[in-house]
Write a structure and sequence with these properties.
The radius of gyration is 20 Å and the shape is elongated. Helices cover about 70% and strands about 0% of the residues. By secondary structure, the protein is mainly α.
Amino acid sequence: MDQVELEVEHIARAFFAARHETGAWENASRTLKHEFRLYARQAIHMLKKRQEQAQRIEREAPPVRSLEPA
């Protein structure tokens, strides 16, 4: 399993645990696991998109000038 898939699996398990407090991931159906993996991939995509947006804003922002004491 590559790094991205490992991250997807960890996030999917976390989402599943948050939603199904009493259920065990190992006992969940393939369909349910697939659904939570989709949620995880979407969350990763949204996070990357937000990080790219923040970096773009950072690059485009004028440099901050410090005020020197008079």
